[in-house]
Backbone:
């Protein structure tokens, strides 16, 4: 219970952080709701007789499609996918139009297909004066800005004026090409086929910059490139571009876009583009709140870990004290047991130093444990020198051989020669290694005199 009371502050903080995260969960739930918001049944739109007749006369609408993730691209199965594909699929259900995609490999190739009449429409072209000569554009259904893309390590590109007297590369017939030639003649403009070629030239340092759709620029690893500021006044709306001479097709597409449910269009854009475009910079107070939340979380986590660690330490300390008490009790019992033995007993380590002895040992050699503990027999004056050297040598040999020894012998003590029955046995640790000798002796003469009997020899 004390442990639970100690955890209560940390639990409160964690509950608070959980409540603060509900806002993020609600946002995620909204995104999920948008993603599943597409209705299973779609109502058609009202078309006039001429528009219905046009659809019957044109069973297929050829769409010139250039791969441009995430707007339109071929998936691993070779099927067209992406934001614009979802929009066209929805329009197809609403109107009855059947879209057939014809792949093109560059902006110039796509424009030639439309100019020649080989394709009826496309979905990824930006509007400019040149294209309005042979294309009609539908209502907008989204959009993004153009951004400057320069080489990493170079100054951040903030405007086209910064590229004066420098090289700019664009795919051929880019939507911004005419504007740049007219308004920024000091920029040296170079044309290539694709955006991939343009990025490669910037990375190699052959040119200074390129211009790319903001969404597209965020899709690729930065590597040797650096994304700069947006080109001022260059918002690129998303349109469906229709080859001129097809007013009925344009009218049908505009009616479909007008009837397109806003929630569904928003769900499609979130499905493909959420997390790709750069997030707006947080204000100071937003950053401060964010830092505060993280700070509270870290402090709470540290507090919880500290409480758990303290609890663990308290448990370990208690276990350690319990073990010490048990060992103390065992040691006291061993001392009491040895002291209760009538014959002298001793314990020596692997170097022959005395570890422990009983009272009978002290009385037999007229000494005390504190005077001889930790010392070899040859280092103390409790037996004659020759006896001490003889017994110490026997102890060392026995520790090497690890064999018990039981012998009846006569030994010279300080108070004379005695006939004794001596025993010594090695003892081992938990790891199986010898730790020393346990031994003692019985004074045969003293026992004979005390018992009043003759003991066989």
Residues:
């Amino acid at each position: 219970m004390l442990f639970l009371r100690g955890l209560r502050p940390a639990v409160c903080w964690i509950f608070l952080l959980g409540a603060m995260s509900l806002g993020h969960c609600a946002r995620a739930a909204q995104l999920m709701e948008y993603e599943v918001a597409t209705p299973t049944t779609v109502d058609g739109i009202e078309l006039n007789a001429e528009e219905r007749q046009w659809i019957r006369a044109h069973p297929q609408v050829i769409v010139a499609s250039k791969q441009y993730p995430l707007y339109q691209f071929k998936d691993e199965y070779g099927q067209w996918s992406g934001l614009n594909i979802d929009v066209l699929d929805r329009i197809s259900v609403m109107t009855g139009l059947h879209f057939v995609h014809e792949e093109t490999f560059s902006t110039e190739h796509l424009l030639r297909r439309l100019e020649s009449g080989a394709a009826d429409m496309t979905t990824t072209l930006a509007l400019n004066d040149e294209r309005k000569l042979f294309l009609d554009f539908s209502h907008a259904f989204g959009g993004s800005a153009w951004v400057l893309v320069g080489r990493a390590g170079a100054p951040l590109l903030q405007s086209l004026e910064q590229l004066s007297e420098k090289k700019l590369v664009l795919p051929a017939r880019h939507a911004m090409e005419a504007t740049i030639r007219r308004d920024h003649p000091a920029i040296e403009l170079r044309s290539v086929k694709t955006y991939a070629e343009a990025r490669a030239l910037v990375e190699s340092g052959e040119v200074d910059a390129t211009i790319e759709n903001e969404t597209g620029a965020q899709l690729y690893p930065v590597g040797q490139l650096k994304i700069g500021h947006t080109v001022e006044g260059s918002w690129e709306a998303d349109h469906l571009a229709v080859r001129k001479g097809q007013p009925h097709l344009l009218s049908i597409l505009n009616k479909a876009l007008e009837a397109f449910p806003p929630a569904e269009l928003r769900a499609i854009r979130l499905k493909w583009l959420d997390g790709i475009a750069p997030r707006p910079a947080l204000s100071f107070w937003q950053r401060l709140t964010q830092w505060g939340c993280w700070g509270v979380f870290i402090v709470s986590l540290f507090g919880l870990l500290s409480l758990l660690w303290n609890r663990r330490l308290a448990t370990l300390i208690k276990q350690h004290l319990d073990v010490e008490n048990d060992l103390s009790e065992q040691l006291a019992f061993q001392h009491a047991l040895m002291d209760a033995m009538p014959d002298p007993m001793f314990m020596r380590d692997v170097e022959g130093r005395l570890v422990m002895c009983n009272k009978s040992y002290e009385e037999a050699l007229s000494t005390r444990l504190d005077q001889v503990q930790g010392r070899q027999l040859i280092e103390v004056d409790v037996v004659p020198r020759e006896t001490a050297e003889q017994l110490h040598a026997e102890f060392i040999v026995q520790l090497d051989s690890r064999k018990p020894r039981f012998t009846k012998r006569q030994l010279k003590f300080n108070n004379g020669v005695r006939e004794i029955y001596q025993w010594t046995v090695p003892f081992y640790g938990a790891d199986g290694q010898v730790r020393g000798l346990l031994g003692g002796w019985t004074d045969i003469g003293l026992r004979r005199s005390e018992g009043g009997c003759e003991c066989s020899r």
The chain has four domains: 1-36+283-340, 37-141+238-279, 143-237, 342-451. The longest strand covers residues 416-428. The domain at 37-141+238-279 is CATH 3.40.190.10 (D-Maltodextrin-Binding Protein; domain 2). Residues 243 and 296 are 60 Å apart (CA to CA).
